[in-house]
Specification:
By secondary structure, this protein is an alpha/beta fold. The chain is 47% helix and 15% strand. The chain is built from 23 helices and 19 strands. A five-stranded antiparallel β-sheet has the order 1-5-6-8-7. Strands 4-3-2-18-19 form a five-stranded antiparallel β-sheet. It binds zinc ion (ZN). The site of zinc ion (ZN) has 10 residues, from loops.
Length: 556
């Protein structure tokens, strides 16, 4: 059949220029404008330093990766397009990106049956011109990166590998380039070309093994060590270096920081780095236990101490004997629990509730709080002597918004962890999502990021990247508001529009949200932001309190 290749203007209209931040977006992929001459110089350097064969491999794989990325994007953009329609979009994108102009070809395709035969003419090939400029007329075809692109694009849409070769090339003196693509088994000399698609460096193998080891380690949180605390920003490194120094001693450590910054991970890492590592690590969240229960939980109870105490049982302190007890939200302890805790810290002994027998315990305490303890002392809610006892070695863990340079590392760590947990392959987040992550203030800190990534992995396409629609309702409220400019179909710059609207539309389209549901999403988001305060949510939405109450009732 004759394939008609429509012009690239519709795709050009998807390009967005953010003049404020210096981004160019094609969908959610960050694009860059490079000087052709710079790429030609790079090609020469590759060939001169690696030799023709290796350089060809590197360029083929770069092209292949671009093709894969574009195909995934095209499929997402036009979910209802047929395989053929998506296939002809590849040459349009290739043209838009300034590589080559593809002319009328022959195409025989049946995605379901895995049939593919494609034959196209290439004109104005960037690579052929580049190669000729560098080396004169060549004895072999030279459009390696472009062939890689064609293979990557078509293979992604076909769901099987399709090998493209050049049967003529203008770099080798032909009038134009001619490319043919078909499954490798249908080429009699496929081996010779296939090797260029295989990464050949030893470094790749080492990196793959390292990644595997790390995945295994991350999947077992219990093995967390101080070296595994993820972060390279100065404030974070200062905190983890303080922690490492404390590990060797028996000092009581007080972990300070907002909720969600990872205090329990720090405590666990401290334990694992200490000489108590082979003894128990016991964690207690004081805020999660009712006041009546907290003492019996911590210090144990003797049979008959109170109604319901039918059996004697040890508390968490006794269970942590020889090891570490992590007391989260220690500021929530009752006055009497504070007194008992002070005694354990000072004397190393406790009595179970309803018991007169004194027991010795050897426990290292790591306490944590997100309230200001010295204020609590002034207000009489927290014992001064206990505060001084806990505050010997404070370590402040910075909030995520103060260590945005660590976001990429953390994202990778959570991808490793949750891809394993959900048995799903997700290769990363789109450039635009990473950009949004860096704009966002992360009130819930690392825990919030972790939740967003887990949710994103569940929603993302297998083998794809987490995109804006996958994270949209969670974090976009104050993040994705870049001022973007697009290109009209004739290539002129359009007036600026709001990236949020684009993202919201993507979300609506992807999740098949009806207009009524859109209203409901907005109402709920406004209520959540106003902490459930009806009047301020109504103000945010520009309506009166009774109007909002009525709509909420209607939409629930
Ligand atoms: Zn060529």
């Amino acid at each position: 059949m004759e394939a008609s290749l429509a012009d690239a203007s519709e795709l050009a209209s998807r390009l967005r220029f953010s003049f404020d931040s210096g981004h160019i977006w094609l969908g959610e992929t960050r694009m860059i404008l490079l000087h052709g001459a710079a790429v030609i110089a790079l090609r020469k350097e590759l060939i001169d330093s690696l030799g023709t064969d290796r350089a060809r491999g590197v360029l083929t794989r770069i092209g292949y990766a671009s093709g894969v990325s574009d195909a995934a994007w095209a499929r997402k953009l036009y979910p209802d397009a047929s395989g053929t329609e998506l296939l002809v979009m590849g040459p349009q994108l290739h043209k838009l990106e300034g590589m080559v102009c593809t002319r009328n070809g022959r195409l025989n395709i049946d995605v379901a049956k895995g049939i593919f035969y494609g034959e196209f003419i290439w004109e104005s090939s960037f690579e052929a011109d580049a190669h000729t400029e560098l080396y004169g007329v060549s004895s072999e075809p030279a459009c390696w990166m472009q062939l890689g692109y064609a293979s990557g694009y078509v293979s992604t849409l076909m769901g099987k590998f399709i090998l493209f070769n050049e049967t003529e090339c203008s770099a080798a003196g032909a009038h134009q380039c001619r490319i043919v693509g078909r499954p490798p088994v249908e080429w009699h000399d496929a081996e010779a070309s296939l090797k260029y698609f295989q990464p050949d460096s030893v470094a790749d193998h080492i990196i793959a093994l390292q990644t595997q080891v790390q995945n295994l380690r991350y999947s077992i949180d219990e093995d967390l060590h101080t070296d595994d605390l993820v972060g390279a920003s100065p404030s974070f490194r200062q905190a983890s270096s303080l922690l490492k120094k404390a590990a060797a001693s028996q000092v009581t450590v007080l972990l300070l920081g907002e909720t969600g910054v990872g205090k329990e991970r720090f405590a666990r890492a401290l334990h694992n780095a200490s000489n108590r590592a082979d003894r128990p690590f016991v964690a207690v969240n004081c805020a999660a236990l009712p006041e009546q229960l907290i003492e019996s939980e911590l210090f144990g109870v003797e049979k008959g101490a109170f109604t319901g105490a039918q059996q004697s049982r040890p508390g968490r302190f006794e269970r942590a004997h020889g090891g570490t007890l992590f007391l989260d939200e220690a500021g929530e302890l009752s006055a009497s629990a504070q007194a008992k805790l002070l005694r354990v810290l000072q004397e190393g002994e406790l009595e179970r509730i309803g018991d007169s027998h004194t027991r010795k315990v050897d426990v290292r305490v790591v306490a944590a709080t997100n309230v200001n303890l010295s204020e609590a002392v002034q207000e009489g809610r927290f014992r001064k002597d206990l505060y001084y006892r806990l505050n010997i070695y404070p370590v402040t863990i910075p909030p995520l918004r103060e260590r945005k340079d660590d976001i990429a590392l953390l994202v990778q760590r959570f991808l490793d962890k949750y891809c394993v947990r959900h048995s799903k392959q997700v290769i990363g987040v789109t450039d635009q999502v990473m950009h949004a992550f860096k704009q966002y203030s992360w009130p819930g800190n690392i825990r919030e990021l972790e939740n967003v990534i887990e949710r994103g992995i569940i929603l993302a396409q297998e083998g794809g990247r987490i995109d804006l629609a996958d994270i949209f309702p969670a974090i976009m409220d104050d993040a994705g508001k870049p001022r973007l400019s697009g290109l009209s179909k004739d290539g002129s710059v359009l007036k600026q529009d709001e990236g949020t609207v684009e993202a919201f539309l993507d979300y609506v389209q992807k999740n098949k949200v009806s207009l009524d549901e859109v209203e409901s999403v907005l109402l709920k988001a406004a209520m959540a932001r106003a902490d459930g305060n009806l009047s301020s949510a109504a103000r945010a939405l520009g309506m009166t309190r009774p109007q909002l109450a009525y709509r909420l009732k209607k939409s629930s």
